[in-house]
Amino acid sequence: MEGHPLALHDVMFIPALVAQASDEQNKKWLRRAQRREIVGCYAQTELGHGSNLRKLETTATYDVSTQEFVLHTPQITSLKWWPGGLGKSSNYAVVVANMIVKEKHLGPHSFLVQLRDEITHQSLKGITVGDIGPKLSFNAIDNGFLGFDNYRIPRTNLLMRHSRVEPDGTYVKPPHAKINYSAMVRVRSHMATGQGNFLAQALTIAVRYSTVRRQGFIESGEQEVKVLDYQTQQHRLFPSIAKAYAFTFAGYETIRLYEQLLKEVDTGNVSLMADLHALTSGLKSVVTHQTAQGIEQARMACGGHGYSQASYISEIFGVAVGGCTYEGENMVMLLQLARYLVKSVEQIKAGESGKLGPLVAYLAVKVDGVDLEKGVEEYMKAFQHVSRLQTWKASEKFLKLLKSGEKREVAWNKSSVELTRASRLHTRLYIAETFKRSVQEVADPRLKEVLTDLLHLHVNYELLDMATYALEDGFLSSSQLDYVRDQLYFYLAKIRPNAVSLVDSWEFSDMQLRSVLGRRDGNVYENLVAWAKASPLNKTDVLPSVEKYLKPMMNSKL
Ligand SMILES: CC/C=C\C/C=C\C/C=C\C/C=C\C/C=C\C/C=C\CC/C=C/C(=O)SCCNC(=O)CCNC(=O)[C@H](O)C(C)(C)COP(=O)(O)OP(=O)(O)OC[C@H]1O[C@@H](n2cnc3c(N)ncnc32)[C@H](O)[C@@H]1OP(=O)(O)O
Ligand SMILES: Cc1cc2nc3c(=O)[nH]c(=O)nc-3n(C[C@H](O)[C@H](O)[C@H](O)COP(=O)(O)OP(=O)(O)OC[C@H]3O[C@@H](n4cnc5c(N)ncnc54)[C@H](O)[C@@H]3O)c2cc1C
Q1: Cα separation of 516 and 118, whole Å?
Q2: Do 429 and 384 contact (CB within 8 A), yes or no?
Q3: Backbone phi, then psi, for 512, in 5-degree steps?
Q4: ipTM given for this complex
Q5: Among the listed residues 188, 346, 363, 362, the one whose alpha carbon sits nearest the alpha carbon of residue 279
Q6: Which of 138, 198, 212, 199 is nearest to 516 (CA)?
Q7: In sequence order, which residues have a C-beta less than 8 Å from that of residue 274 and are 6 or more positions away?
Q8: Distance, CA 329 to ligand 1 centroid (Å)?
Q9: What CA–CA distance (Å, rounded) separates 346 from 319?
């Protein structure tokens, strides 16, 4: 769980080579990387800049006389800072640097750079590299720093699948300005399944423990109840079970889209890039945020024992919450999706609704009301309505400010909270729709029934959570919201008998979960005692600190 020092080799280094190095370059590098003869990482973020890639300070200046790039980090803030696996493990890196050719700044480009000797593993001359120190989590990964002192690499180490620099310094542009960002888009498109998995682990622990833990009574009786029988406990955990499934389904779709994008880009078609960038930006932000919230609720649902490291939930939280920051800080990425939404509104206003992509076509279609009792399709229309309402409101606010003479960037900043709200609602609609589609495709009738219950729970929970938007313009009445609440409570109770099976179906082994509370056999109490006894503090009855500090204090006459 604490991560693996070679994780980024597989997650980003190899994918960056696959997507950005030419076939000829990959003949030299890819096989070696796949065999782990060389170990690499993805070095982009700097001490001074992570979000704003246009301001990266590391430069790669082309020297036409030697046909080399000179890598340089001119000041402290230019040091690469954060890349996983960079500090100690990697001997190579894909380095993102601002490329300068014939004094022209051509923006961020990726280079394969050797950092350490392949035999001795010592850092090479001109390179300063090390570990950035302990973090909230991921402490088995050596996130690192990296500086270059006019460090030279051959021209052919610029990754040249999409753009090139010829020996004489002629620059051949890529087919899309942001094609060099593909390694990030890849990770973002995998994050929904990855985060769904973290949420699932925490829920497995909390749900299993909630069937072992007995406390209090619902009705007066002989035996105290399992805490999972409390409606509040179900409300804390079951909507997150639905989300863990929903995120996984949404993630499968974005992974498929990314694979399709890779194929299309190779044939010169970059039309999917903007859509996938917008979609994955929103999805990574909503999913990581909701996952962190869900894991924290799972921890609290385990009461005091949830706070113990024996629960292992705090470890899962630490790793998962990193996703709110890495691969694009969540607010920054929500604002990327918002750009796409505002553009869509502008297209509609210009009478070009026909040009809208399938995921935003609903922004042009007004719905007057819904009959929620007719089922999930009507809920989808309600989600569309709230997302459309907020997207139009936020866009109009921005466009009005623009019209009043504000600079574009200032108008954007003044509308940004509303814009991020629109992005979240649009993404939650997407998650609900992929959930619905995925459940429809399930062939096994018994499985389909249980997943349909989860889907119903999800749409009722989500709609209630967005109620302010739906009430704002009278789209939903208060009696409709009462219906949603009743449905929510109905599905909490309906899911209760299947709750343990739903989490067991994820098939985490005890070794994976590392949780005393979430043990498959349910023997929690005896193992908590054994776990406590194994604490280093219990190795001796009397600690050395007693002689050193306590006794002098206790014997003092003051
Ligand atoms: C098989 C498994 C695979 C993967 C598993 C991965 C994760 C699994 C989940 C859990 C993890 C499990 C275990 C853990 C193991 C390891 C940890 C895993 C990963 C951690 C590694 C972390 C790595 C990093 O963090 S790398 C650094 C990431 N950095 C960022 O994300 C920076 C964010 N900033 C940006 O991306 C950009 O600066 C920007 C905000 C997008 C702005 O860019 P820029 O200034 O250049 O552009 P403009 O704003 O001017 O926009 C112009 C225009 O371009 C459009 N645009 C921008 N980007 C893109 C793009 N990528 N594609 C297409 N279009 C793009 C933008 O929208 C504008 O369009 P319009 O003009 O039309 O509006
Ligand atoms: C666990 C972990 C692993 C990482 N692994 C890697 C790696 O392998 N390789 C790598 O290169 N990097 C890596 N990173 C770095 C990571 O990608 C960046 O930290 C991340 O992109 C955020 O950038 P930042 O640190 O510059 O945040 P900042 O941009 O400084 O964010 C600070 C605050 O400013 C706000 N903000 C910034 N810009 C805007 C804006 N335009 N509009 C509104 N608000 C804004 C943010 O929302 C945030 O609230 C990793 C980070 C972590 C935590």
Answers
A1: 43
A2: yes
A3: -65, -40
A4: 0.97
A5: 188
A6: 212
A7: 340
A8: 9
A9: 39
Kindly tell me if the per-residue pLDDT of 197 is higher than 90.
yes
Ligand nearest to the CA of 409: 2
Query: Is 327 labeled as catalytic in the residue annotation?
Result: yes
Q: Please give the helix or strand (H or E) that residue 345 lies within, else none.
A: helix 330-349
Q: List, for residues 142-152, the tens digit of each pLDDT value.
A: 999 999 999 99
Domains of the chain (ranges, CATH numbers):
7-163 (2.40.110.10), 184-352+374-500 (1.20.140.10)
Cβ(132) – ligand 2 distance below 6 Å: no
CA distance 85 to 5: 5
Could you read off the pLDDT of 235-272 as tens digits, one per residue?
Answer: 999 999 999 999 999 999 999 999 999 899 889 899 88
Q: How many Å from the N-terminal Cα to the C-terminal Cα in the chain?
A: 49
Whole-number Å distance, alpha carbon 175 to ligand 2 midpoint, is 27
pTM value surpassing 0.95 = yes
Secondary structure letter of residue 371 according to DSSP: -
Query: Ligand 2 pocket, 22 CB below 6 A?
Result: no
The 3-state secondary structure of 405-474 reads: CCCHHHHHHHCHHHHHHHHHHHHHHHHHHHHHHHHHCCCCHHHHHHHHHHHHHHHHHHHHHCHHHHHHCC
| Binding-site annotation: residue ranges for FAD | 45, 84
**From 46, 68, 253, 327, active-site residue:** 327
Helix (H, G, I), strand (E, B) or coil at 541: coil
Q: Environment class of residue 433 by beta-carbon count within 10 Å: exposed (0-12), middle (13-18) or buried (19+)?
A: buried
CA–CA distance, 195 with 279 (Å, rounded to integer): 16
CA of 403 relative to ligand 2 center, distance in Å: 32
Spatial distance between the Cα atoms of 145 and 388, rounded to a whole number of angstroms: 44
The Cβ of residue 534 has, within 10 Å, a number of other Cβ atoms equal to 9
Looking at the DSSP bridge assignments, the partners of residue 95 are: 43, 111
Please give the single-letter amino acid code of residue 424: R
Q: Show the CA angle centred on residue 383, arms to residues 377 and 387, nearest 5°.
A: 145
- Ligand 1, residues at Cβ distance < 6 Å: 3, 7-8, 11, 42, 44-45, 50-54, 84, 178, 181, 184-185, 187, 190-191, 194, 273-274, 277, 326-328, 332, 336, 339
**Nearby residues of 456 by Cβ (< 8 Å), 6 or more positions away:** 376, 487, 491
- Say yes or no: CB of residue 92 within 6 Å of ligand 2: no
Residue 296 token pair: 């924290």
Ligand 2 neighbour 84 (Cβ under 6 A): yes
